[in-house]
């Protein structure tokens, strides 16, 4: 049910001709209220796409009644003209929704815009605006899945989630299969809830959720120009959860979507959890996990079913985390192939034939821990990213 | 002529059975003096191989009369026993050289040891020590090339260099085809000179040379546990160059070897120079160059002959360098495909069919510049590193 699982939301996904494949490429999510609260987290990349710059302003305004999303073009590195295109999209959407049977009266400043696809090219605006009008006519309570399909790029399947609270619900959709890296949200994601929640509660819940989910997946170390995670609240349930309840539900939804992203990462044959334990701080654990997740030699070894713990230790050695080189243990799929920085159990005991891999690194430097999720580096990754322009 | 081009040096390369291929795997370089000065630069990885820990101590002692190098095993992550193996190698080499016709009398503390190959496995010591004895018997003024061959791992060709001074010479050999990343020397390299030079002059020349050569190549962002660059001086020419002359020659030799390393990087189909200009500082230029060099999406795009400047800009955006996103220009092979952060000249004008690629990034933030050299990310890289354990 995706973003339309909570009450107060309608959505649509249509083919507007932005993708040469003819697949759906424009999605619309509308919040019918009664509330229109919003929180957002955006890419940490200093080169931000026009829709990111626009939507950051909109979120600062505190009210979002509609989100327009398109695949087939990122509208990034498109200069002032690209920003005008985003502004025109919001204006057109606001005017068309206000004049439609959508029973809404709203301004452009209440319309968030997200784009994904090739960087550096202008969007075909007539096709996009025509798609917006078609999407408005198709808005429905069943539109969650079509909307999730319309934002796919190299994704092989749509990503949706539903988490039930007590009388209220969080729903969501996301896209992303490459250019996934932490230090931010790593893709487009819209989360919705019919809970009653003020802007501070929404913001706190979303930031806490992103920190331990989207910020801890890393498919290829590459940080996108367009990453956006939005949380919209309609208040339609009439139920106001505690901040802890809201945070837990939003985190569960974000975790579910983050795992779907890593599972569908470009060309991946392995889904890898890097558990760093015994760290002196959570930051140390995250730094070590990311260094291992971004190491091409570790990633290619795992693609080749090789439990190459030496490469893992070499990656750990590039960090500033507290540890002693002769005090680190490493397990691959529960076999402790390295103890005290040297060979331990026989590496031939490690079974890497399955898709799921767990690397456990014990730094023996404290009591903190963190998990980073990543995938392997395969021939298919090279193929997709050398043959397909993003 | 490699390391034996300068007077005062003999070398050998032999097959000791460390490599299953039967190829040469033990090299020996001997400095017959009259001087025995040395300088060294080592990996910045905190997980250092036993030979690195040993050789750092030896270099601190200020005198090196012999360097033993082996491929077929890195002796990294091998614990205290691995360190004892390195120590035993130095002891054995010192004793055998002192007892041989090599006309040398030296202690283990004057023998540097370098290893490369698989991490995490002990070396077969009887085979290695037997190889050392064979190498001693084979020492000659023509041994430079055999020595360079004996340190190859996934290298497809030996790397040697000779730079002539006025009455003196710098020679060198290096190995390395993967796990090449800056923040250090990135491979094994022995440089030799018959110049007369004190330890401070050698150290200053070597550090200055590494900073702008080995530290500015980055094949795969992966920092090795074993990187070592040594500079040995025999003084046999009787000529004492100025510090500037020595630095210039050592830098030229290091630059030549660094370019050979990048040219032979694992699976590479492109040799890429990233010129960052208009930077507010040299550090900024280096940071931007490295971020682009390490970006898998840029590297796969170039493998696919795609002048994807959007991915380049996205990589620049992850840095802390001074620049404005709407003030950056990017040229690929002299075609300015991006001006002021947006599309400019037609990307179809870019010819990427050749092996050499130049990316020029103008930050328009100052007058400093730096070049980082890298290569593309290919199917062959994935194949070599998933099928071959290092």
Helix-strand layout with pairing:
The structure is a homodimer of 390-residue chains.
Chain A: E1 9-14, E2 26-31, E3 37-42, H1 50-61, E4 66-70, H2 79-98, E5 111-115, H3 125-138, H4 144-150, E6 159-164, E7 169-175, E8 188-193, H5 199-212, E9 228-233, H6 243-263, E10 271-279, H7 282-293, H8 296-303, H9 309-316, E11 329-332, E12 335-339, E13 342-343, E14 356-362, E15 368-375, H10 379-387
Helix pairs in contact in A: 1-2, 2-3, 5-6, 7-9
Question: How would you summarize what this structure contains?
Answer:
Chain A has helices spanning 50-61, 79-98, 125-138, 144-150, 199-212, 243-263, 282-293, 296-303, 309-316, 379-387; strands spanning 9-14, 26-31, 37-42, 66-70, 111-115, 159-164, 169-175, 188-193, 228-233, 271-279, 329-332, 335-339, 342-343, 356-362, 368-375. With 390 residues, chain A is α+β, with helices and mostly antiparallel strands.
